[in-house]
Design brief:
CATH superfamily of the largest domain: L-asparaginase, N-terminal domain
Structural class: alpha/beta
CATH class of the largest domain: Alpha Beta
Radius of gyration: 21 Å
CATH architecture of the largest domain: 3-Layer(aba) Sandwich
Distance between the termini: 50 Å
Number of domains: 2
Strand content: 15-25%
Oligomer: single chain
Largest sheet: 8 strands, mixed
CATH topology of the largest domain: Rossmann fold
Length: 335
């Protein structure tokens, strides 16, 4: 008699909507008020068989609302994944269930920090499992299917929501409560998962020389990196305060052309003169900030097409390598 082969996927639960219990079937907004968060092993047992012929191996982390996650949690989660991969060579993929508020940030950190030979997928939910129209079961099923795909091994960390797989670098949450809350503008998803849990890949990621080059062995804490958002009439008060608070780098989320407000320029110059790395980004959705003369004159690096919060994560890891400014700029534009 032939035994059906079942790939094993480690499912690491970090809490979030995915693990919460609502108070009634239409408690789609304030469900955290219930105070009930299920451990991942209990939740998987409750859900039963999710994806055909895939064995889920629950791995506990801790329950965190994604608004509470910190860089220290990222380091601990990355080490847990590395340790699990080392101790369990039979694991063929990882799925991390995560709150959606900061899922894209955790995904990008893991994308840069880890170098795995298995699929790594983050997923979550917009509606708790015990509410009408919950997306918990469908998102987990799609995430498991993607995590066991051969193509996923070459894609770093992925976010799978609403039956679509997105690159961690590009994905962002664009809606508070809609089920189709995630997008990758302007690049789109990498793959689509159908109702039979078949994954249809539409494009591949280019080779990224900076992927998984930021090792964190011996790193107990990441450098403080902050974001200063520009708006009409903004002055330098926030930037000066961030320097005083100990920021090692500041991302200027500038106006749509990729420039700070005029009132911020002097503070940016003071920051760079004090040795703080300043990177110019843009708050625009489809933004790009190339190398430009005005940036070079002020000692400011160009943020390319990375969003401000993704730049922050890249800088946190890049600063562990003490790269000179020229290499740091190449790192940003090549990421």
């Amino acid at each position: 008699m032939t035994t059906q082969y079942s790939p094993k996927v480690a499912v690491i639960g970090t809490g979030g909507t995915f693990a919460m219990q609502a108070r009634d079937p239409f408690d789609w907004v304030e469900y955290s008020e219930s105070g009930v968060v299920l451990p991942i092993d209990h939740l998987l047992e409750q859900l039963g068989e999710v994806a055909p012929h895939i064995e889920c191996v629950p791995v506990p982390f801790r329950a965190l609302g994604s608004t509470a996650i910190t860089p220290a949690d990222w380091l601990e989660l990355a080490r847990l994944i590395e340790r699990t991969a080392s101790e369990r060579p039979d694991i063929e993929g990882f799925v991390i269930t995560h709150g959606t508020a900061t899922m894209e940030e955790t995904a990008y950190f893991l994308d840069l920090a880890l170098n795995l030979d298995v699929g790594l997928v983050l997923t979550g939910a917009q509606r708790p499992v015990n509410t009408a129209g919950s997306d918990v079961l469908g998102n987990l099923r799609a995430a498991l299917a993607v995590a066991t795909c051969a193509q996923a091994k070459a894609c770093g960390a992925l976010v799978v929501m609403d039956n679509k797989a997105y690159a961690a670098r590009d994905v962002s949450k664009s809606s508070s409560f809609d089920l189709n809350a995630f997008e990758a503008i302007p690049y789109g998803p990498l793959a689509q998962v159908d109702a039979l849990a078949h994954v249809h890949w539409r494009r591949c990621l280019p080779d990224n020389g900076w992927h998984a080059q930021f090792r964190f062995e011996g790193v107990s804490a990441l450098a403080r990196v902050d974001i200063a958002t520009s708006y009409a009439g903004a002055d330098g008060a926030v930037i000066d305060a961030l320097v005083a608070a100990g920021s090692k780098a500041i991302v200027s989320a500038g106006l749509a052309p990729g420039r700070p407000a005029a009132g911020e320029v002097a503070a940016i110059r003071r920051a760079t003169a004090a040795g703080v790395v300043v990177v110019q980004a843009s708050r625009a959705v489809r933004a790009i900030v190339p190398r430009q003369a005005f940036l070079q004159r002020d000692g400011v690096l160009a943020g390319g097409d990375l969003s401000p919060h993704k730049l922050r994560i890249l800088l946190m890891l890049a600063l562990t390598r003490n790269l000179p400014a020229s290499q740091l700029q190449d790192c940003i534009l090549g990421a």
